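quick one, 270 residues, struct below
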Amino acid sequence: MLQSKIFSPIDEIISLYADSMNRSLPHLLEGLYIYGSIALGDYSLELSDIDFIAITKERLRESEIAALTQVHREIELKYKKPNLNGIYLTWNDLGKLPENTKPFPYYCDGRMHESGYFELNLVTWYELKAHGIRVIGPEVAALGIEVDFEQLLLRMHHNLNDYWRNWIHKSNKRLSFAALALYFRRADIEWGVLGITRLYYTFRERKITTKAGAGEYALEVVPPQWHRVIQECINTRRGVKKSLYRSRVVLKKEAIKYMKYMLDECNKLK
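---
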């Protein structure tokens, strides 16, 4: 069904989703697009979700949401990984932000939400416009999505000093759940280190790249003292099980220090 850049398990899941939709809710789905890490070429079976935008003619009714929930459950019974996370919009919603449209149904981490604004942001629209993959509907270029990149950068700086600053604070707080999780889950450290590094890449290069791509970029431009923790996170992203660290305590400490460094460097790039 999909372009050759999509790995086989992803193709199988999306094909099953589209077939199940057509069987359970024929003619409801008018457009289906993939964005996020898969569209950007940063696929990881363990860490990636399948981020999708589904287009219907009108807002979904309660009965349709119930049927969709069953479709997702059937897929999850067959495929435990990766997760299908997506938003259900109308054509009129494309390119809009929460302040310009009504809330919509979305599916995230095994649960259907009847109403919200999940992933409705400028990064989503940029990724769809620049890298999105069409499954059903018009070609991406024909959707006419416009993205104000200066506004995107402003919102990223807000995200940096709100979400990421709080993430670092909670992860550095003794005996907090977030702090303890970093000792046991390499994926959490990968999320933090490469997540904030993606912002750094965008502020410097005015483009959006993958998490692994941002890590590779950082290896070329940041001081050598940070290279081990960056490479550790790239390895995690790529499924390398063996750690570059003997001590989880040292890994966590270096990750938090690096993220504080990144926070300061990003704020210099306003």
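The chain has two domains: 8-142, 149-268.
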